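Worked example

This section walks through a single chain of length 465. The input is the sequence exactly as stored; nothing has been trimmed or padded.
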Amino acid sequence: YTPPKVPLIPGSPAPDFTFREFRSGENLSLASFRGKVVLLDFWATWCPPCMASLPGLLELYEEFHAQGFEILGVSLDESAEDLRRVIESYGITWPIAFEGKRWDNSIANLWRVYQIPTAYLLDKEGVIRFRDLEGDSLRKAILELLSEPVVSEAPPPAADLPEVAFRPEPILELRVPEEVGVQEGKVATVFVRLLNTSPYLAEEVRFSFPDLPQGWEVEVPAPFNIPAFGEREVQIRIRPESSLEKSFSASVRLSVDYHYCINDACFQMSQEEKLAFVLGASSAQSPSLPWWILALVAAGVLLSWLLFGRTLTVLSLVLVGLGVAALVFGIFWGQARQAQRIASVLCTSCVGIEEAKAPVAEIPQALLSEFQDFPKRAHLLVFYTPWCKSCPYAKDLVAQIARVNPRISYDFIDADEKRTEAETYGVIRSGRAVVPAIVVRETGKILFGTEDLGRRILAALKEIP
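Given that input, the structure is written out below as tokens.
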């Protein structure tokens, strides 16, 4: 992402913005609330943690609004009707900014909002003082800021705190056919299988084709949810234009958008896969057979033998053999796949999603010379926990980098044992350790997860002044 000009850390002036109030249509700005204590709340009606926090916010607003406390809600909803219904049912009276663009909301982009609920508490001078407080902590902070006098001096300079570069991980595995045959003016059916590899609900899964050829028609399923460790196969119907060249072929992006929530945070994700279309008869595609259908077939075979096959010795043996084999295979196949997905997220306290078996740590050959020739001194802090399954990969990779370049040093830090240090660097978030996390001490840059880690470490090192 591109950081805003003003850092979003306590002690920094809050970036100003203008918006059209959802109900009145009045044009307002954040600066127009100067002189009041403002809670800037990013939320949405489809976000369960956001909705759970509403009663507490209503109590705080009723208690402190007359004393100079204001809430400014920035809604990441897409449906104005859903937002209006919630506002009316809860009796919300504070100003609401709404654009109907979900995660493309301009205010959310300005404030680098990657999860909701996210809330900033601003003092009377428009300076960021706290972030993501809840319950008694939020109430005490509001009282503290309300008691402060309004001063005309410029706010103090922002504290030199580390910037967190957090990257939520996708939780869906997409399986698409390698090639799809199409014929002029005829409907081609594409089967897409989605597997949820996490213990979280994937909500409002949507399909789109950003670069579908002009004149093509596509029918995608309505938004749906995929439960934890669940899977779903969908049919997408595509009708190409009536005239195609004999040598026609096209590669089209299939985009899958959804969001998922982890306790007090919701993440919006977008994943893409390429679909290759060629002129010709459609490839034989059919939905894959779920494991439980094999189990049902096996049960039916066994039941038939019990009822009708006892006198047919040879046939009975064949039926029994087929039934038992299908039953065992079906159950084993389903349980093995389920267990594999569950095992991939044994790290229950992580925000990110990890692989069950991390690959062997090795510096990519294309990056080796760049690590060896890196001219500056750098110190990497590698935060890990004993229960983290992918932390050994991060630790091994950093150790290898230090071996090829003596100017790069490192420390391994147990985030469970040294929680204060982990909190200082932003590794503890909402009471949970997000590991593995690698901090470049010279810049405060934090890298989470193991995806493309070597390249990300090199890019972070190059940011050292």
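What to look for: The chain has four domains: 18-161, 172-279, 291-338, 365-461.
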